[in-house]
Protein backbone atom coordinates (compact mmCIF):
# COMPACT_ATOMS: atom_id res chain seq x y z
CA UNK A 1 0.00 0.00 0.00
CA UNK A 2 2.84 2.38 -0.78
CA UNK A 3 1.51 5.83 -1.68
CA UNK A 4 2.03 9.57 -1.74
CA UNK A 5 -0.01 12.05 0.32
CA UNK A 6 0.33 15.72 -0.67
CA UNK A 7 -0.95 18.20 1.91
CA UNK A 8 -1.25 21.96 1.50
CA UNK A 9 -2.56 24.88 3.49
CA UNK A 10 -3.22 27.80 1.14
CA UNK A 11 -3.43 31.40 2.37
CA UNK A 12 -4.75 34.49 0.63
CA UNK A 13 -6.22 32.76 -2.42
CA UNK A 14 -6.53 35.29 -5.24
CA UNK A 15 -9.05 33.24 -7.29
CA UNK A 16 -12.65 34.31 -7.87
CA UNK A 17 -14.18 34.29 -4.37
CA UNK A 18 -17.17 32.30 -5.69
CA UNK A 19 -14.88 29.28 -6.05
CA UNK A 20 -14.41 29.23 -2.26
CA UNK A 21 -18.08 29.87 -1.47
CA UNK A 22 -20.16 27.90 -3.97
CA UNK A 23 -20.40 24.14 -3.55
CA UNK A 24 -21.12 23.29 -7.16
CA UNK A 25 -18.22 25.31 -8.54
CA UNK A 26 -15.71 23.78 -6.13
CA UNK A 27 -17.08 20.27 -6.59
CA UNK A 28 -16.85 20.54 -10.38
CA UNK A 29 -13.30 21.90 -10.19
CA UNK A 30 -12.09 19.08 -7.92
CA UNK A 31 -13.83 16.23 -9.72
CA UNK A 32 -12.73 17.50 -13.14
CA UNK A 33 -9.12 18.03 -11.97
CA UNK A 34 -8.97 14.40 -10.81
CA UNK A 35 -10.46 13.09 -14.06
CA UNK A 36 -8.25 15.28 -16.23
CA UNK A 37 -5.15 13.99 -14.41
CA UNK A 38 -6.21 10.39 -15.17
CA UNK A 39 -7.42 9.41 -11.69
CA UNK A 40 -10.60 7.33 -11.28
CA UNK A 41 -13.45 9.12 -9.47
CA UNK A 42 -15.73 6.67 -7.63
CA UNK A 43 -17.92 9.25 -5.89
CA UNK A 44 -17.84 12.50 -3.97
CA UNK A 45 -19.58 14.41 -1.20
CA UNK A 46 -19.47 18.22 -0.88
CA UNK A 47 -21.29 20.30 1.73
CA UNK A 48 -22.27 23.97 1.59
CA UNK A 49 -21.87 25.87 4.85
CA UNK A 50 -24.15 28.89 5.23
CA UNK A 51 -24.43 31.88 7.52
CA UNK A 52 -27.60 32.42 9.56
CA UNK A 53 -28.91 34.66 6.76
CA UNK A 54 -28.55 31.84 4.22
CA UNK A 55 -25.53 33.31 2.43
CA UNK A 56 -22.82 30.78 1.47
CA UNK A 57 -20.02 30.56 4.06
CA UNK A 58 -17.55 28.01 2.73
CA UNK A 59 -17.45 24.50 1.37
CA UNK A 60 -16.04 21.19 2.56
CA UNK A 61 -15.80 18.04 0.51
CA UNK A 62 -14.06 14.86 -0.52
CA UNK A 63 -13.61 13.00 -3.79
CA UNK A 64 -13.23 9.23 -3.33
CA UNK A 65 -10.83 7.80 -5.88
CA UNK A 66 -9.96 4.24 -6.89
CA UNK A 67 -6.43 5.45 -6.08
CA UNK A 68 -7.46 6.91 -2.61
CA UNK A 69 -8.92 10.43 -2.10
CA UNK A 70 -8.90 14.20 -2.43
CA UNK A 71 -10.18 16.40 0.43
CA UNK A 72 -10.71 20.15 0.45
CA UNK A 73 -11.99 22.72 2.94
CA UNK A 74 -12.43 26.46 2.30
CA UNK A 75 -12.57 29.56 4.53
CA UNK A 76 -13.73 32.29 2.14
CA UNK A 77 -13.72 34.99 4.84
CA UNK A 78 -9.91 34.60 5.07
CA UNK A 79 -9.44 33.31 1.48
CA UNK A 80 -7.81 30.18 2.93
CA UNK A 81 -8.04 26.56 1.70
CA UNK A 82 -6.70 23.24 2.95
CA UNK A 83 -6.06 20.55 0.33
CA UNK A 84 -5.16 16.84 0.51
CA UNK A 85 -4.40 14.61 -2.46
CA UNK A 86 -3.52 11.04 -1.49
CA UNK A 87 -2.87 8.27 -4.00
CA UNK A 88 -1.78 4.69 -3.45
CA UNK A 89 0.40 2.93 -5.93
CA UNK A 90 -1.24 -0.47 -5.86
CA UNK A 91 -1.37 -1.36 -9.55
CA UNK A 92 0.74 1.51 -10.94
CA UNK A 93 2.71 4.55 -9.68
CA UNK A 94 0.13 7.35 -9.39
CA UNK A 95 2.49 9.92 -7.83
CA UNK A 96 2.73 12.06 -10.95
CA UNK A 97 -1.08 12.10 -11.28
CA UNK A 98 -1.43 13.26 -7.66
CA UNK A 99 1.13 16.00 -8.25
CA UNK A 100 -0.75 17.08 -11.40
CA UNK A 101 -4.04 17.50 -9.47
CA UNK A 102 -2.29 19.25 -6.59
CA UNK A 103 -0.43 21.66 -8.89
CA UNK A 104 -3.56 22.33 -10.96
CA UNK A 105 -5.69 23.25 -7.93
CA UNK A 106 -3.01 25.46 -6.40
CA UNK A 107 -2.66 27.20 -9.76
CA UNK A 108 -6.42 27.90 -9.79
CA UNK A 109 -6.60 29.09 -6.15
CA UNK A 110 -3.50 31.26 -6.65
CA UNK A 111 -2.57 31.61 -2.95
CA UNK A 112 -0.19 34.27 -1.66
CA UNK A 113 1.37 31.63 0.61
CA UNK A 114 1.42 27.81 0.46
CA UNK A 115 2.52 25.59 3.37
CA UNK A 116 2.97 22.08 2.00
CA UNK A 117 3.76 18.66 3.41
CA UNK A 118 4.66 15.51 1.49
CA UNK A 119 4.03 12.23 3.31
CA UNK A 120 5.21 8.94 1.81
CA UNK A 121 2.77 6.38 3.20
CA UNK A 122 3.05 2.64 3.53
CA UNK A 123 5.87 0.23 2.90
CA UNK A 124 6.86 -0.66 -0.62
CA UNK A 125 5.81 -4.31 -0.88
CA UNK A 126 8.84 -6.23 -2.11
CA UNK A 127 8.37 -9.40 -4.15
CA UNK A 128 9.51 -12.49 -2.19
CA UNK A 129 13.14 -13.41 -2.89
CA UNK A 130 13.49 -16.78 -4.56
CA UNK A 131 15.01 -19.49 -2.42
CA UNK A 132 14.80 -17.50 0.82
CA UNK B 1 -7.93 27.49 10.15
CA UNK B 2 -5.59 25.95 12.70
CA UNK B 3 -6.14 22.21 12.95
CA UNK B 4 -4.73 18.77 13.67
CA UNK B 5 -4.33 16.04 11.05
CA UNK B 6 -3.63 12.54 12.39
CA UNK B 7 -2.34 10.06 9.81
CA UNK B 8 -1.76 6.34 10.33
CA UNK B 9 -0.72 3.38 8.23
CA UNK B 10 -1.80 0.18 10.00
CA UNK B 11 -0.22 -3.21 9.25
CA UNK B 12 -1.37 -6.69 10.13
CA UNK B 13 -4.78 -5.74 11.50
CA UNK B 14 -5.99 -8.53 13.79
CA UNK B 15 -9.67 -7.49 13.73
CA UNK B 16 -12.42 -9.56 12.12
CA UNK B 17 -11.48 -9.64 8.42
CA UNK B 18 -15.07 -8.71 7.50
CA UNK B 19 -14.43 -5.22 8.85
CA UNK B 20 -11.81 -4.66 6.13
CA UNK B 21 -13.92 -6.24 3.35
CA UNK B 22 -17.52 -5.20 3.91
CA UNK B 23 -18.52 -1.63 3.06
CA UNK B 24 -21.46 -1.38 5.42
CA UNK B 25 -19.55 -2.61 8.45
CA UNK B 26 -16.64 -0.21 7.89
CA UNK B 27 -18.95 2.71 7.10
CA UNK B 28 -20.95 2.14 10.27
CA UNK B 29 -17.80 1.86 12.38
CA UNK B 30 -16.33 5.11 11.03
CA UNK B 31 -19.51 7.18 11.14
CA UNK B 32 -20.38 5.94 14.65
CA UNK B 33 -16.83 6.56 15.94
CA UNK B 34 -17.04 10.18 14.75
CA UNK B 35 -20.47 10.71 16.31
CA UNK B 36 -19.50 9.02 19.58
CA UNK B 37 -16.46 11.31 19.86
CA UNK B 38 -18.71 14.36 19.49
CA UNK B 39 -17.82 15.30 15.90
CA UNK B 40 -20.54 16.42 13.48
CA UNK B 41 -21.08 14.09 10.49
CA UNK B 42 -22.38 15.97 7.42
CA UNK B 43 -22.25 13.05 4.98
CA UNK B 44 -20.12 10.16 3.80
CA UNK B 45 -19.23 8.11 0.75
CA UNK B 46 -17.89 4.56 0.94
CA UNK B 47 -17.08 2.30 -2.03
CA UNK B 48 -16.87 -1.49 -2.15
CA UNK B 49 -14.09 -2.88 -4.32
CA UNK B 50 -14.70 -6.37 -5.68
CA UNK B 51 -12.69 -9.09 -7.39
CA UNK B 52 -13.70 -10.30 -10.84
CA UNK B 53 -15.73 -13.08 -9.20
CA UNK B 54 -17.79 -10.51 -7.25
CA UNK B 55 -16.17 -11.23 -3.89
CA UNK B 56 -15.43 -8.16 -1.74
CA UNK B 57 -11.85 -6.91 -2.13
CA UNK B 58 -11.52 -3.91 0.18
CA UNK B 59 -13.26 -0.67 0.96
CA UNK B 60 -12.42 3.00 0.54
CA UNK B 61 -14.36 5.88 2.01
CA UNK B 62 -14.57 9.30 3.57
CA UNK B 63 -16.71 10.90 6.25
CA UNK B 64 -17.22 14.64 5.74
CA UNK B 65 -17.35 16.45 9.08
CA UNK B 66 -18.31 19.98 10.06
CA UNK B 67 -14.82 19.90 11.65
CA UNK B 68 -13.14 18.55 8.42
CA UNK B 69 -12.90 14.84 7.48
CA UNK B 70 -12.02 11.21 8.12
CA UNK B 71 -10.65 9.03 5.29
CA UNK B 72 -9.98 5.30 5.31
CA UNK B 73 -8.73 2.72 2.81
CA UNK B 74 -8.38 -1.03 3.43
CA UNK B 75 -6.29 -3.81 1.87
CA UNK B 76 -7.79 -6.98 3.35
CA UNK B 77 -5.41 -9.29 1.47
CA UNK B 78 -2.53 -7.83 3.53
CA UNK B 79 -4.69 -6.79 6.55
CA UNK B 80 -3.50 -3.21 6.05
CA UNK B 81 -5.43 0.05 6.53
CA UNK B 82 -4.61 3.73 6.03
CA UNK B 83 -6.46 6.22 8.22
CA UNK B 84 -6.73 10.04 8.27
CA UNK B 85 -8.56 12.08 10.88
CA UNK B 86 -8.34 15.82 10.28
CA UNK B 87 -10.13 18.42 12.41
CA UNK B 88 -10.00 22.19 12.28
CA UNK B 89 -10.35 24.25 15.40
CA UNK B 90 -12.50 27.03 14.02
CA UNK B 91 -15.05 27.52 16.78
CA UNK B 92 -13.48 25.23 19.44
CA UNK B 93 -10.40 22.99 19.91
CA UNK B 94 -11.36 19.63 18.40
CA UNK B 95 -7.93 18.00 18.82
CA UNK B 96 -9.03 15.72 21.66
CA UNK B 97 -12.06 14.56 19.64
CA UNK B 98 -9.82 13.71 16.66
CA UNK B 99 -7.48 11.76 18.94
CA UNK B 100 -10.46 9.89 20.41
CA UNK B 101 -11.66 8.75 16.94
CA UNK B 102 -8.12 7.86 15.87
CA UNK B 103 -7.43 5.84 19.04
CA UNK B 104 -10.83 4.14 18.88
CA UNK B 105 -10.35 2.95 15.29
CA UNK B 106 -6.80 1.75 15.89
CA UNK B 107 -8.06 -0.15 18.94
CA UNK B 108 -10.71 -1.87 16.78
CA UNK B 109 -8.33 -2.70 13.89
CA UNK B 110 -5.68 -3.96 16.35
CA UNK B 111 -2.69 -3.67 14.01
CA UNK B 112 0.62 -5.42 14.66
CA UNK B 113 2.39 -2.21 13.53
CA UNK B 114 1.26 1.43 13.31
CA UNK B 115 3.19 4.12 11.45
CA UNK B 116 1.75 7.48 12.46
CA UNK B 117 2.22 11.10 11.48
CA UNK B 118 0.85 14.17 13.24
CA UNK B 119 0.54 17.31 11.10
CA UNK B 120 -0.41 20.63 12.69
CA UNK B 121 -2.13 22.52 9.88
CA UNK B 122 -2.78 26.20 9.44
CA UNK B 123 -1.72 29.23 11.39
CA UNK B 124 -3.34 29.99 14.69
CA UNK B 125 -5.36 33.12 13.93
CA UNK B 126 -4.40 35.70 16.54
CA UNK B 127 -6.91 38.35 17.60
CA UNK B 128 -5.81 41.83 16.52
CA UNK B 129 -3.84 43.63 19.23
CA UNK B 130 -5.59 46.76 20.48
CA UNK B 131 -4.00 50.03 19.50
CA UNK B 132 -1.62 48.45 16.95
Automatic annotation (TrEMBL), chains A, B:
InterPro entries: AdoMetDC_C (IPR042286), AdoMetDC_fam_prok (IPR003826), AdoMetDC_N (IPR042284), S-AdoMet_deCO2ase_core (IPR016067), S-AdoMet_deCOase_pro-enz (IPR017716). GO terms for cellular component: cytosol. GO terms for molecular function: adenosylmethionine decarboxylase activity. Its cofactor is pyruvate. Pfam families: AdoMet_dc. The keyword S-adenosyl-L-methionine applies. GO terms for biological process: spermidine biosynthetic process. Keywords: Autocatalytic cleavage, Decarboxylase, Lyase, Polyamine biosynthesis, Pyruvate, S-adenosyl-L-methionine, Schiff base, Spermidine biosynthesis, Zymogen. PANTHER family: S-ADENOSYLMETHIONINE DECARBOXYLASE PROENZYME (PTHR33866). This is S-adenosylmethionine decarboxylase. It comes from Hydrogenophilus thermoluteolus.
Amino acid sequence: MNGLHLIADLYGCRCDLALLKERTQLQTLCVDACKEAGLTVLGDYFFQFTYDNGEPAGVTGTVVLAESHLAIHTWPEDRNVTLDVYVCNYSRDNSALAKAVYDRLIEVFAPVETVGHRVVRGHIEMPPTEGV
